[in-house]
Amino acid sequence: xxxxxxxxxxxxxxxxxxxxxxxxxxxxxxxxxxxxxxxxxxxxxxxxxxxxxxxxxxxxxxxxxxxxxxxxxxxxxxxxxxxxxxxxxxxxxxxxxxxxxxxxxxxxxxxxxxxxxxxxxxxxxxxxxxxxxxxxxxxxxxxxxxxxxxxxxxxxxxxxxxxxxxxxxxxxxxxxxxxxxxxxxxxxxxxxxxxxxxxxxxxxxxxxxxxxxxxxxxxxxxxxxxxxxxxxxxxxxxxxxxxxxxxxxxxxxxxxxxxxx
Length: 261
Prior knowledge:
By secondary structure, this protein is α/β, with parallel strands linked by helices. It folds into 2 domains: about 5-110, Glycogen Phosphorylase B (Rossmann fold), CATH 3.40.50; about 125-260, Rossmann fold, CATH 3.40.50.2000. It is built from 11 helices and 10 strands. The strands form 2 sheets. The chain has a 6-stranded parallel β-sheet, with helices on both faces. Strand 3 (about 85), helix 4 (about 90-100) and strand 4 (about 105-110) form a beta-alpha-beta unit. Helix 6 runs parallel beside helix 7. It is globular and about 55 Å long.
């Protein structure tokens, strides 16, 4: 991450680096996962080098091109470039078919997040009710940065009102996000601001959270699979299973709506 980096500069830098790597290694195929800008750049670089690109976690759709931003645009743009699509479920398969993707190029694999939890969840990661009570907060989305300060003010107010609750905040590498968290929450004694955790350690902490406040697609799915309630700081989600289960509640980025939840 670079301070103040734009999506255009990030994408351009990724394309140049990936092109060099592909030319140097000449792979038979490239596998990309998810909906990040690096995934889109990998699909583009592979297309330019005429190398097959296989997309994992394909077909997720929120229905709004700019939400989540830029991930919805990224995954829609990857679809016509990919040689094969690995979809989480039949719902994502139907999304790809609606985009005009040949059904022979789609394989339903199940959720990679569920697979990761299955392999990385030893007995000590089973959800347990811990004392003191814990809230995990992860916020990072680019389209949510304008509302981030206001949401963090609400989190700070909650932490001040409930000093017996511990708020754990693993921080995204984005310098703007880290600065906002430190300004809003850094002085509160019941708030811990940490660097990103190793995945197994993160799951351990997540499984012990009494509430998860997040704007992350992956974290909302992980928390729901661990039966942790989630307040989603977004207006929509491409992952509807958590909503249907009742474990994920849309909290919006509007602070008044967030506070009412």
